[in-house]
Amino acid sequence: MPRLPSALEPLFPLVKRTHRFATRRVGAVSRTLAPAFGDRGVPVQAHLRSADTAAAEPGALLHPAGPAEHLDRPAPSGTPAGIEWWRSVTTYDVPPRFVLELPGGQVIGNYSAHLTASGRLDHETSHYFDVFGPREHPIYLRTRLPKPEYVDGTLVSLATRATGVNYYHYLMDLLPRWGILREALPDLRPDAILANTEPRFGRELLELAGLTAYRTISPRKHSAFRAERLLVPNLTNKACLAPRWTTDFLRRTLPPASASTGRPERIYVTRGDRRNSRRVVNEAEVLAVLCPLGFTVIDPGTLPVQEQIDTFAAASVVVAPHGAGLTNLNFSPPDVRVLELFNPSYLNPGFWAITANLGQARYRYLVGEGPAAAPGLPGRNVYGDITVSITALRSAVEELLA
Description:
Layout (H helix, E strand, L loop, with lengths): L11 H22 L12 E2 L2 H7 L4 E4 L4 E4 L4 E3 L11 E4 L3 E6 L2 E3 L4 E3 L5 E2 L26 E9 L9 H18 L7 E3 L5 H9 L7 E2 L6 E10 L10 H10 L12 E4 L13 H8 L5 E3 L6 H10 L2 E5 L15 E6 L7 H7 L5 E6 L22 H12 L1
Parallel strand pairs: 1-9, 4-18, 10-11, 10-13, 11-12, 14-15, 14-16, 16-17, 17-18
Antiparallel strand pairs: 2-6, 3-5, 6-13, 7-8, 7-13, 8-9
Helix pairs in contact: 3-4, 3-5, 6-9
């Protein structure tokens, strides 16, 4: 997800609450002013569901793709045992997949808000972090919309929240949108795709997925594109609970390029030593336990994407602090064993959910030392550093390797 400057990361909960408050207050004004700006006014109307958008907008269509999916997974084991919060993420109803077609539709900003030709916001395909309804969407922090660039023919919108900066969301949100498009319209060859090309990993992933054959438009903070025909696949990973079909799609689309022979089977994923980055503060002590057991230290962010895929495809055991590099678990063997390290005031189910998709994988969590969040809550210290109990680590690793 997007980051604050490192020194300000502890203020994230306050910043997020302020952002939502500002969106509601500024939005009340910007919607009032919208008629004065004509076509560049912010959307006055919005639909929660794309089906309602398609029904209300002349010429709009909804192209069905894959079916809905109900996920029911047992809560993971870990230390401390019995954290009640895990029960809240064990079930998830994944929506059916579809592509929304909007003649004359617009895409606004690097969060990719989708508007109909008449200016309605489709909230379902424009999802943003931690917002509760269209009126908290950051599009309403604008007083007017950017002047749009016109795109001839068919534009497929793949970019979404944070895909310009975050490896997890590129793999789990942007690329799966292409998979949905191929399910719904298998013979379509679009004139252009909207996908982030700023990050190195984005350019590499587009090439590996075969998407560099198409003209690519990269969204910017103040960009707007109006297409003759806009196609928008929906988002099925809004809760970061990894639908099974997403892991299956990624494994088919991005296979390992080389044999696993000679690659480390036990890996420790480092976050480096920058403060407020989920680094492991006592990493030297952690490595003193792991290295004698045959673990190799890797930093996924320093590796080409294909090398990351190949490394995780060969790994039988992975120990890591919570971080986007673990998205590569999608490519791990079905029986991989995983120990994920957390700050006590921030839990996240994303990589447990990916591991659960693999079949016979074993997952454990280990919460670091320090004050915990309020009972039942994962907390919001998103990039809080982690201090690991070495005694608890030894026990967890012994159990994982048993």
